[in-house]
Amino acid sequence: MPQSRNEQLLENWRDGEAPTIEPQSRVEAWLAKIAGADVGTEPPQSRVEELLEEIEQGLTPPPSGTIEIDENGTYDVGAYATAEVDVPNPSTGTLSITQNNDYDVTAYATASVNVPNPSTGTLSITENGDYDVSQYAAASVDVAGSGGLDIADVVEGKITAVGTAQSPVQVTKIGQYALAYNTDLQSAYIENVGAATGNVSSVFANCSALQAVGYSGFKQVGMYFFHNCSSLTSVHAPDVETVNGNAFNGCSGLASLELPACKLISSSYVFKGCTNLQSVSLPSCTNIGGFAFQNCSKLTVFDLSGQTSQVVALGGNAFQGTPFAGSGTPQGTPQIKVPQALLASYQADSAWSAYSAYLVGV
User: Fold this and answer.
1) Which DSSP symbol is given to 17?
2) What is the distance, to the nearest Å, from the Cα of residue 125 to the centroid of all Cα atoms in its chain?
3) Tens digit of each residue's pLDDT (9 = 90 or more) over 37-92
4) For the chain, how long is the longest CA-to-CA vector?
5) Is the pTM of this model over 0.85?
6) Could you please report the per-residue DSSP string of 231-261?
7) Nearest C-alpha neighbor of 331 from the set 269, 278, 252
């Protein structure tokens, strides 16, 4: 004797005679269609399983609209090419993504998200969360949008871009090594909207493909912040007041730099090895530490003319290995531009007098 209506339906529709029970739902209609072709088929356990079975049998095209996953499990959602997949919030357990696509997994507040290794294509992270993207060995990961992204912890894996110039990622916290060693990262645009100062080390260290950076709302560039970012050519940092030791050490692709709000360039080799750096503008600077521009062998124009209130304090050997110290290969006539009204004071200053041949009043 059948124990359930589904079993009764299957028995009725498989006996070779005209069915005497009419389907009363989409599931029952589906069972009627496949009953004669697949004896022993059990009814689906969920709506997702039902639709996937239909797709496999060619009875239903890949769906559009919205599919709701209401139970935790492992689902292959790759067939849902034109559908949205909604999950409960919060969801627990593990969602396994078995095919590459763009997935918003932020609703999985207390769940783990597993991805294939390697995965290809792009995973888009649109909201704040903790993501381990290290399994995306052949994929790119875009971090976009706003909402206070917390990159206080290390973000592992292949990342090509963080935000855009028009839409920087809003950051509430930023931590040591947060994006370091991501050798596929080409651009990063972040904006401080919290208490982050930027005084943290090695955030972009050894991002060797990084070319362009937007860094707004931060007061400091931490130690080794861009260390060995050898492809870096563009830095927009309008609010930075302090640049700490070795921050740009090894940025050999950087040709020019303007830090309009910067007051302090620390000692300890801030720009050491920036071998293509040709021009620097520091209109607000009051203090340049020792060895700051060591071995900037092409440094030709150094502009302090915007600082009209005082002579900038200069540490020892700040320009060691540059054209201002008789080394390197200047890209024109070496000039240190200072306000005309302060030219005599610079020439008489014990630190600056060693570079008097290059001091120019403007």
Assistant:
1) S
2) 9
3) 333 345 555 555 565 565 556 555 555 555 555 555 555 555 554 455 555 555 55
4) 111
5) no
6) T--EEE-TT--EE-TTTTTT-TT--EEE-TT
7) 278
